[in-house]
Specification:
Layout lengths: L1 H12 L1 H4 L4 E11 L5 E9 L5 E6 L1 H6 L5 E3 L7
Antiparallel strand pairs: 1-2, 1-4, 2-3
């Protein structure tokens, strides 16, 4: 039993066991025009595993619901 408890605690202390590396904190939200003059609703997210920030375009409803300071996961991407 002690061995199982130790392994569980070790896993909780490792980043890869306790975090999803396609999630992080929204640090900025902007509306910009892309290269084709289309409206781009952007969210910049700081990755909770790497600390790197990346900006993506989303549709209006996703952008509207995402608030600076909130946790946000980006689907269909690997960690950045």
């Amino acid at each position: 039993m002690k061995k199982v408890l130790f392994i569980g605690l070790a896993c909780l202390s490792l980043t890869s066991c306790s975090k999803e590396c396609n999630c992080g904190t929204i640090t900025n939200d902007e509306i910009i025009l892309d290269a084709n003059n289309n409206t781009c609703y952007t969210l910049t997210v700081r990755n909770s595993c790497s600390g790197n920030s990346k900006t993506w375009c989303f549709d209006y409803s996703v952008w509207f619901e995402g608030n600076v300071g909130e946790n946000f996961c980006v689907t269909n991407v690997d960690s950045w």
